Amino acid sequence: MHITLLIAPFLGLALFSTALSAQVVYQWVDQDGSLKFSDQMPRHVKADDLKKIKVRNNNSFKTVKEIAKEQAKTPSQQQQELVKMSQKNCDIANKNLKLLNSFNNISQIDANGKEVILTSEQKIEQINLTKKQAEIYCVK
User: Fold this and answer.
1) Alpha carbons within 13 A on the beta-carbon side of 86
2) Which among 84, 94, 76 is positioned nearest to 133, based on CA atoms?
3) Domain of 100?
């Protein structure tokens, strides 16, 4: 099985840049059975066969300390929200790590809309970045 993964919007701390507070990524399975992801709605896929995934920008991946400084809420409300945000970011990092480790051929859609297969070095780099995200957000 081959998986196409749109990595730029949600993998790698350095790659988390977008002007929007949230954006949609489309997921579908093509005629060859390959799982595909794109930030652009594919024209050749029926709407019923598409899954929309809401992806947040880098502002949702701030450290707990950064978020705490920005919010002017009571300590208990603030703590509850920070725990929820950290858990959500932890879940995202773990899912991304599982995807990266589950498939040999991972590709991404580049800025020009072209599908590019990650080299083994790029895949290792993405795995390392995702592990760092898990270390930051997964509280033990």
Assistant:
1) 18
2) 94
3) 3-137
CA distances from 54 to 10, 33, 64, 91 (A): 10, 23, 22, 14
Q: How far apart are CA 116 and CA 119, in angstroms?
A: 9
pTM: 0.46
Give dist(CA 124, CA 129) in Å, integer: 9
Contacts of 13 (CB under 8 A, 6+ apart): 58, 61, 129, 132, 133
* Structural domain count of the chain: 1
For the packed helices 75-102 and 120-137, what is the interaxial angle rounded to 10 degrees? 160
Please compute the mean of the pLDDT values over residues 24-36 and round it to a whole number. Answer: 84
Percent of the chain exceeding pLDDT 90 equals 19
Tokens found for residue 136 = 């930051």
Residue type, 1: M
Residue 31 CB partners (closer than 8 Å, separation 6+): none
CB 129 within 8 A of CB 13: yes
